[in-house]
Structure formats: structure tokens, C-alpha cells
Amino acid sequence: MTARTADQLPHIVVLGGGFAGLQFCRSLPPDVARITLIDRENHHVFQPLLYQVASAGLSAVDIAQPIRGLFAGRPRFAVIMAEVTAVDLANRRVRHSRGEVAYDYLVVGLGGVTGYFGRDDWARYAPGLKSLDDALHIRRQILSAFEKAETATDPAERAALMTLIIVGGGPTGVEMAGAIAELARKILKRDFDHIDPTRARVMLIEGSDRLLRAFDPALSASARRQLERLGVEVRTGVSVEDIAAGRLTVAGEVIRAETIIWAAGVAASPLGRSLGAEVDRGGRVKVRPDLSLPDHPEVFVCGDMAALVDPNGVAVPGVAPAAMQMGAHAARIIRRELAAGATAPGPREPFVYRDKGTMATIGRSAAVAQLGRWQLRGTLAWLAWLCLHLIFLVGFRNKLAVLLNWIYSYLTYKRGARVITGASGRPPGASA
Amino acid sequence: MTARTADQLPHIVVLGGGFAGLQFCRSLPPDVARITLIDRENHHVFQPLLYQVASAGLSAVDIAQPIRGLFAGRPRFAVIMAEVTAVDLANRRVRHSRGEVAYDYLVVGLGGVTGYFGRDDWARYAPGLKSLDDALHIRRQILSAFEKAETATDPAERAALMTLIIVGGGPTGVEMAGAIAELARKILKRDFDHIDPTRARVMLIEGSDRLLRAFDPALSASARRQLERLGVEVRTGVSVEDIAAGRLTVAGEVIRAETIIWAAGVAASPLGRSLGAEVDRGGRVKVRPDLSLPDHPEVFVCGDMAALVDPNGVAVPGVAPAAMQMGAHAARIIRRELAAGATAPGPREPFVYRDKGTMATIGRSAAVAQLGRWQLRGTLAWLAWLCLHLIFLVGFRNKLAVLLNWIYSYLTYKRGARVITGASGRPPGASA
Question: What are phi and psi of B343, to 5 degrees?
């Protein structure tokens, strides 16, 4: 390949600085193309730990990494903080809130948004957990509910203020329920004068017959027992019929609850529907085996936006490792084609998902992990979870900060981020 | 003194969990009275480091401490998170947003608010720095301005986006200007593709003829030189004539600046004016020598809300050490009177301010400090500043987190908290 000046290099536009987008940029050598990464935030968020920000264990900054900082000094690399508004496939251009940009290759990895299965009106009363702002909103909500309970005089109102319901028994719901139960029973225990936070009612609702459906049934049962030991009321096989301000209807029963958290559904970024390809029920784009868009080999869709059954018959799940593997796969294909230059490259390799396991933490020394044929539960699973999350957390400073926060909380039964910021004004999802 | 049951103990209500209020609670032995502390936030903020949150050096949580956590387990101690609305001196009751409460003694330490000398309309365009939310707002503002500059196409607009003006040359203004200049010139330097953050224009405006008027003139001159070395444009002896959206008029000149920060004035909490006593121009209550309210020996006003010239002729400044000393003084008096019981106590001791020195940091290895007759500048002053702030920062976790952040920034020239949260929606001061 002959040397080309920067302007002659092909231009790759990457939409989204999540796991897929970042891994793509890291996997592609800096000298083969110009890259422009567009994200509406200035930071990458380590989503698997969002629930710890929401439950006051970590500060927002600990799990976020400024995107510019990650690639500072890398040549031919630009970052635009803007909202992507449209992709013009025919003319190979991306329009965003601050202008537009042309591409030779496009990598779309905008992830997902909280999905309410057609009940978007529930979003106001039951916020989801997809961004730092969501997490800070939920933290404010939880801590403020206990503050209000402390001065409430009506017993029914006090009970409602101390009732917290999590809808959705996947990993996020399980982790959130465990963390909230621990917050109330262990951390806030001695903080109040008129209420007893250990009597808070924490309920986890799952529509199917068991928690953590992606895990082995034995682990689902273990997760349930571990949650119940923390005092969480687990209800499976019941569906939420309605959600309104401070009340939720499940299986015909109306429960008053100040705090309702939605962990039941994720829908792909709405941009997926505008790409002209078929989408599934969750709005995910049905990509070709190589992750490209049908009829547009120059466009790749990666991460939570892509719907794919791989050659082994595995429906690729919407988890961080899958997104990273997809980003790396797209980078490998593009790199090979750029190296081949004018020569037509051979057929593209299909994406094969390598499942390295899944885990969910429930609380102190409580977790479940499925690593291939291995199953872990309790302390061992919890330690495995801690190590893996530290290793994959982006940025040395964040690793250190999170490690110290964890050690501190473990030793003192306190949580450092028990701070209410951002006033009461912001409606849920205002920034989403 | 005979043992009394808890209900017979006198009740002390403390308004505000700032330096004065916390020090009061700590100084009073837990067995002499019941205490109720009322604050509208759930956390104490270490105000001297707010500017580092605003300039993306620290995360909000690092300098905040949940108030309940500080006194968890202390008997006869209640915390109410509510806004104080009125004090009924005649009936000895405090009304707040969640109810009301009677007191035997009242300690008022609500601190200050940003003051605009009658130009409250400027608050929208030039936010102040009094709370965590203010600091997060300013951080978002600064980082977003650079993000917008990166994609701006009009050179004049780009220049305006990269102009940051700080109004007020006291410690907060000096520290803020230094931190912003360092952020632009050292930290963001390599982050952008189309703009050169080292060419950002950072201007510090002071109406009087020198910066840091509370310091020796030699230190004022040193601070100015140290700021100019960082590239800050220092203008003294000029006054701000007008502030509007994105523009500031100083000495007849209109300067376009996306970011304007107000560090020029502090006014006492407006509640001071409702206490029936004389107030000074800044709304501070003219207290008696023992810090009590004229005609109400059971009410003490401490910290930034109190106006007092002590027996040595020193006008007590509105700084954290003075607030802490006042809180301790009020606790000493009340403790003595409670111990004396029915016996009429002798005349009260007047408050005497012990000035242990003042310091302001400008940047890496740049600071000024006045410790009695000693003057420090440069690296030595900076090290003294670092140590003292770490020592006085409340909470072990926070000390450790801040120390590690500082070490990290020092070694890497990065700032961990370079994260934009909270979207664009919130108007400045919405939570103030």
C-alpha cells in the first residue's frame, strides 16, 4: 500500500461512543483512515455499573470517561459532541445537530433507550437506567423519598414513601433491587430519627416465571434466594398493568410506591428504523452476517442496535462484551479492505459471538455467574464479578476510584455518593 | 446537674449544615440537649473546593458529606431536609417547608447566596458558585463551550465560545481563573481537532485596584504575576457595567464571552432580614458581641450571616474558619448555661476571632498564603494550601478521594471529572 496524505485517506464516521464504537476505534490502526466519532455526550459510560451510581455507591464521574481524553493526541481523529439526526445512505452523509459530515465507511453503535412496550406515558413515573443523568435522577429520587418519609405524619403516606418497586427481573433489575435493599437495610439504617429504613419495602416484579432468564434455572433460583435474604419481595409471573404517579397496578392489586424504577425493557436507538433495513420488535436492525446493512456494505451496525443470529445459531445478546466484539469485527473487515486497496476483497467473514459468561451481583458477597458450563454463586461469584468489572472499566483513574470506593463501603458499611444533587426540577429522561 | 430524661432536655434547633452549624453540633456534648438540624440539602459542602468541582478537577461527591451520616447513631439528634421559611421569635418556633418545630435555643447559620448588588437580572448570564449544583452548572457550561467551539464555523462565534470571564478578584475569582486557565492550556490542550484550547481567552475582572484585597499588597502582586504566567488577562480598577447573554460590558468595551462567572459578591441568606435586627449592606445580621440577636439571647447567628467587629477591632471575615469558631463559641455559651441550670449564668463571653491566615491557590505550584506575619508564595504556598485543605475536608473517604485525584492530576495532567452531566436544561441557580 503506498503512502497517502491524510486528506486522501478514507473517512470513517462512528456514531456513538459506547462499547461498540470505542472498541472499533481502538481496533483500527491510526494510520489507515481518518475517524470522526459523534456522540451526544462528551463521555463514555460504563453501563454495567450505572446501578451503583443510582444506588449511591459510586459517583457519576467514577464510571465515565471523557471521550476526547481517550483518544487525545491520536492523529486523524476528531470527536463531535452532537446529536445524530439522520443518515443519508444514498449520499453517504450523516446529519447532526451541529452540521453534517461525509463518510466512506459508517459504523453505527448508538445503543438503546429505555423501552416501555408502547406505554411511553409510564416513563414519567418509572424512569429507566440508561445514562448518567438517569442514574443521578434515580439516586435523587430514592434518597429524597427517605427524607420525605422522615417528616411524613400520615402512616399510609410514609409507607408509600418507603416502598420501592423495580420492574424487570433481568440483570439490571436484580442488581438494582439488591443494591436498594442493601442501601436501606445496611447503609441508611442508623441515619434517621423517626423512620426505620430497614422496614422499607423493596419489591422486584418480573413478568416471566423466573428472574435472570438468560441464566441457568438453578442460578435464577439462587439469585431469588439471595435477594429474599436481603429482604426483597420477589414476584414472578405477574405483569404490571398500570403505572401512574406514585402507584403501580400488578395482578389487579394497586400498590402505592413513591419510587418505581423501570428495568423491564430496552429498545434500540430510534435511528435504526431510519436505515431502511428490516427491524425487529425492539427496533434492532437485522444486519447481514458480517454486521453490515443489507445493500450497504459500507455501513455497519454494532452493539445493542444490531439483531443477528450468528452462524452457531446464537441470537447475539445486548451485552457489553457482544458490543465490543462487534466493534472489533467491523474494524477487522474495514482494515482488510483498506489494505487490499483497489483489489476487490474476498467475501467477508461472518460475526461469531464468543460467550465468555454472564454475571449479576446482588449485594455484599452475593452474586450469580455463569461462565460456560461453570456456575458460581455467593461470595465466589461476587469476587469474580468485582474483578471482571474492575478490569473492564475504562481508565486507570476510574479503576482506582471504584476500587477504593468498594473497599471503603465494604469496610465501613457506608456509601460515599449519598448526595442529592440537581434539585427536584428535572423530569425523568429530560436529557435522554 | 441531675439526670433528666430525653424529653426534659432543652431543644436546640440549628439552621444550616455549613461550617458554623456542623461545628456547633460537634462542640456540644450529646447529653446536654436535643438537637434538630435543618438544611435544604442532604449534605454538607466543603465550599473552599467548590471551584475544583466547577473546573472539572473533582467530582461533586468528593467534597460533599451526607449530614445524616456525620451524626449517625448520635442520640437525641434529628436532621430535617427542608427549606426554612420563617422564624417566629416571639413563640420560639421555626417554620419550614415540611412543618414546624419549637426551640429553646436557636443557632442560625444559613450562610450566603450569590449577590449581584441589585442587578439580579445578571444571575441568568453570570452564575455564581455557592452550591454543588452551581459548580456542576459551571462545569457543564465551560466544557460545553469548548465542544461548541470545535464545530463552530464563524470565527467571531468561535472566539466568543473560547472567551471565559470571571468577575471578582477575591479568593474565589482568583482560584477559578487559575483553574480555568490551567484546564484550557494544560488539560484540554490535545483534546480537540479544530480548535486550540491553549488560545482560549481567560479574563479576570476586579473593580478595586488589586486582587485579593484581604492579603498584603505584595501577595496581591504575586498572585497577579502567577495568574498572568498562566495566561490570564487580569484587569483591575475597572467595573462591569452590564452583563447580557454572551456579552459583558467593562469600561465601555463590549466583550463577547460564552462563559461568564460571577465571583464578585456574596449576600447573607435573606432569612437574616426577617430576624428583626439591624442588618448591614450585605444583609448580614448585626449581632451582639456574644453572637446573639439583640433582645433574643436564646438566638445565635453564626458564620457568613453574622456582622461583627470583635473586641480587638477586627471585622470578622466571611470565611470557613471564622464560621467554625463562631459555631464553637455558641456551643460553649449554651453548654455553660445549661450546666448552670436554674442559677442565672454570669455575663456571656464575647466572640474573639483568631485569624490563622488566608490562602488562595492559582494553579500547579502556584499560590499565595498569608499566615500571620508570614507570607508564602509559589510552590511552598501551594503545598501549604494542599495540606490544610485536605486536613479540614470533612470525612475520611473524601480526604482519600481528593488526595488521589490531586496526585492523579499532578502526574498525568488530566482531570478526572471532565464529564458533562445534567443536560443543558437547567437554568443557573435553579436550585439555589
Answer: -55, 130
